[in-house]
Amino acid sequence: MMSVETISRRGFLAAGAVGAAMVGVGGFGAVSRQADAAFVRPPGAESNAQLVAACDRCGRCLQACPYGIVTPVPLAENLVAYGTPTLAFDHGCCDFCMQCVDACPTGALAYGGPRERDLGVAVVVKDACVAWDWAGCTVCKDECPVEGAITLDDHDRPVVHPEYCDGCGKCEQVCPSASLRAYDASVEDKGIVVVSRSSEAAQATGAVSSEELASKRTVAVAQANAASPHTKGVHPDGPDATREAGA
């Protein structure tokens, strides 16, 4: 994971200046198109455009996260969103401890918004998911802390229910497909990944291919700022506690 120190203050200021200038010229819409609606953001983030404009790239949210999953957007990936916080679930998941929100000095991450406890939605990647080739793997369903967010179809393959999923990333963290498919260099994705609800990938019905994921996870949809539809319960006891859907 990229450390706070590797992001230069000059880079922060440059990216922030670009974002602010774009807000002045074209409003939040201009920033949203460049900032990319597909980034999965920490709790309390509103639209990507608003976060890019409000975030001063101080890195305090990165330092505050006890699980090390808050990471800065790399400069090579996106100029305008460079240095703003995104989430990486390779080695951890979010339990909504809200320490990143508490650490934010600008309000870019804040309490009370529609995404305070909704980070995104999980999507099954069918050519990476082990259950699509042979039966037996139900790790994502077994480890999911939200009851009803992941179920199995008639072929014992995982099915995500977006209305319950809160995007905590537990499924992506524990997915074993990378190690089980180590023999296949063409498979780069995990079998299940969390995407922004504002991405086209989030609008897909059922599982997607790796190719579809690559082309759709970085494309904003018209409803990018709409409130998410999930009805899941909050998990106050951390990612290992079971929450009742709809509670």
Report on this structure:
This protein is α+β, with helices and mostly antiparallel strands and 247 residues long. The protein has two domains: 4-103, no CATH class; 121-216, Alpha-Beta Plaits (2-Layer Sandwich), CATH 3.30.70.20. Helix content is 26%, strand content 8%. It contains eight helices and six strands, in the order αααββαβαββααβα. The protein has helices spanning 9-35, 48-54, 60-64, 99-103, 139-143, 170-174, 177-180, 210-216; strands at 70-72, 85-87, 121-124, 150-152, 158-160, 192-195. The strands form three sheets. Strands 1-2 form a two-stranded antiparallel ribbon. A hairpin with a 5-residue loop joins strand 4 (150-152) and strand 5 (158-160). The radius of gyration is 18 Å and the shape is globular. Keywords: 4Fe-4S, Iron, Iron-sulfur, Metal-binding. Residues 220-247 are annotated as: Disordered. One of its GO terms (molecular function) is metal ion binding. Residues 43-75, 85-114, 120-155, 156-185 form the 4Fe-4S ferredoxin-type domain.
Give the termini separation. 35 Å
The backbone outline, from C-alpha atoms, is globular
> What letter string, H or E per element, gives the SSE order?
HHHEEHEHEEHHEH
Tally of individual domains: 2
By DSSP (H or I, 4+ residues per run), the number of helices equals 8
Number of strands: 6
Q: What amount of the residues lies in strands?
A: 5-15%
Radius of gyration: 18 Å
SS-based class: alpha+beta
Which stretches of 5+ consecutive residues score pLDDT under 50?
Answer: 1-8, 27-36, 219-229, 231-247
Strand order of the largest sheet: 1-2
Region (Disordered): 220-247
InterPro entries: 4Fe4S_Fe-S-bd, 4Fe4S_Fe_S_CS, PSI_iron-sulfur_center, TAT_signal, TAT_signal_bac_arc
Protein name: 4Fe-4S ferredoxin
Biased composition (Basic and acidic residues): 234-247
